[in-house]
Amino acid sequence: MLKRIVLGLVLALLLAMPATAQELFGTINTKFRQLSTQGNLFGCSLEYAAATRDHVYKQGGMVLVYGHISLLRAKGNIIVALKVVLKDRKFGPAGMSYVPVRPYFAYLQSKDGRTNVSGFHSKTASDTPGATNFAFNFDDNFLHIWLDMMERNATTLVYNRDKGGLDVSLKLDLTVRETYDDGRRGHSPAMMLNWEKCIRGLTDKLKK
Description:
The protein is an alpha+beta fold. 24% of the residues lie in helices and 49% in strands.
């Protein structure tokens, strides 16, 4: 239900924008979410939504990309969970629509090019149309990426659509709180500060 609400808000925003504003690509919003069960912290999630041009698979067509980057406590370890949802913009007799397409693979990349591919653990199809969930170990490469994220308040999401297919890179500005009807972005450091605080609390629990 939550993901349908998020997608609905994103689509409503894009449809409400004037034609010129609809061509403004990049991060649409970012939201921090603390995950708990029975009052016990078990995860820290950073939800994102963005719009990009896909010159690899869609001849420059617009694609909505959204999901979350989460750290989850599991069996005494920290798992990195990456959810990626792709929605291709399509024009037809009924007007504009967004068609879900599951990514084949996805990962994160730091400014200096390091990735967390080495920690890949598994992937599963999500019940969200167009979504795939990826799980990674929290290894030295992800630690480097996380520190880079905290320093720059940004990261690069990389995905492809087919096995062996070319990668598509999308920079995420993790300070974007919201995007207004005219395409302007509202920024705040709060999401990243809360995410860092949550993660430190999560790792402290593992030490006890």
